[in-house]
Structure formats: C-alpha cells, structure tokens
Amino acid sequence: MPSTIIAPSVLASDFGQLAAECKRMIKGGAHWLHMDVMDGHFVPNITLGAPVLACVSKGVPGIFMDCHMMVSQPEKWVDEIADAGGSLYSFHIEATSDPVSLIHSIHARNMKAGVAISPDTPSTAISDEVGELTDMLIVMTVYPGRGGQKFIERCVPKVSELRARFPDKDIEVDGGVGPKTIDACAQAGSNVIVAGTAIFGANEPEQVIATLRSVVDA
Ligand code: DX5
Ligand code: ZN
C-alpha cells in the first residue's frame, strides 16, 4: 500500500493567519495541507480560491497543497490553481462529463490529479480508465460543503472497493475523520487522511497527527 499521508484541512484553521497555520501543521508532522476550494454553486458555500493559494505557496515555501475543488466547472480552474502553486488538483466526478481530458490537462500542468466521490455516488462511478489514469481517489465521508460534520460510516465500504480495484493508488478519506473514526478508514485501506476539526480543534495538533499516522501505519 502507498505510504501514509496526513493532510490537515485548513477549512478549520484561522484564515486570518493562514500561512502561519500551515507552517504550524508542517512543524507538527503534517505532510500535505488540504485546501478546500468551494464555488457557491457545486456546494452552497464559498471559501478560498487561487489568489489565496498563491499567497500561501509564497509564504510557505515547499508546501504541498492538496486542492479539493468543490466546483461546478473543474476544467475552468486548472491553469489558475497550477499558477498559484497547487500540487494536487482533485475534482468531483459528479461535476464533469469528461474526466479523462481533465486528468490529462491537470497532468499537463505538472499537478497530480485526484477524483472525488460524494456520499451518494457509488465507487463504480470511477471507471477503470479514470482510476488508472488518476493519482488519487477521494472518498467523501461527509457531504461536501462545510467542515465539522459527522463522519458517515456507510461510505467506508467504498474505500475497500476502490482499494481492491486500485491497490497502488493513493486513497484519501475526507470528512469527519479523527481519532474516533480513523480505525475504520485505515482498515478499509485509505492512506491519505484529511482531518480539519479533529486537528485544528485540538490543544496539541501534533499529537492528533501522530495518532492518525500510527493507526494507518499499524
Ligand atoms: C468538506 C471538506 C472537508 C472538510 C474536512 O466539504 O471537503 O475537507 O473540511 O473537515 P472536517 O475534518 O472538520 O470534517
Ligand atoms: Zn476537502
């Protein structure tokens, strides 16, 4: 299985101190930072976009930005996110009719590509072709749109289904993940762990990061 990666979701951070918050997480043992981009259309909320990501990438040299694009037209933002320093561009399979071309255009801009599925989307919505082409598969364990929601247990079997089909790919879980829900995610085969509230809401985030990592590594 690919190596364990812990990616705190900055949605739960103090946006007024975003670069400092990212540095604090990296110092605390995080590998990636998960950046939730919302457009007010694919999901009801608006969060941050390319101009903010560009500031973070400038302020935190070497940062790996895992950009989760909860947007209606994911084709539209590939160049802007690449120019802003995005490292990985994840789009929702529900938001595009041509995932293969989109993955090629993401790779052409030297970013990794990720494909996300919302709670009501079956794992079979990711075709073999798309799964093989992409670098990461994301199983949403909450409805996309906001942080701090309750983990949806019934999404976990989709992680196992995707792990069986794609043994060498990164598989990310996103939403409501923390020390109480990590066991199920790890056993199902996810290796990239997003956690917002559980990490930023803790008194000692580095301990939460270490706990999550040790469960997945076990
Ligand atoms: C939900 C986002 C998630 C979320 C994670 O729309 O994609 O990344 O912010 O935050 P927690 O861990 O608080 O559920
Ligand atoms: Zn996310």
UniProtKB/TrEMBL annotation:
It is an enzyme of class 5 (isomerase). GO terms for biological process: carbohydrate metabolic process; pentose-phosphate shunt. The keyword Cytoplasm does not apply. Its EC number is 5.1.3.1. Substrate binds at residues 9, 68, 145-148, 176, 196-197. Belongs to the ribulose-phosphate 3-epimerase family. This is Ribulose-phosphate 3-epimerase. It comes from Lactarius akahatsu. The lineage of its organism: Eukaryota, Fungi, Dikarya, Basidiomycota, Agaricomycotina.
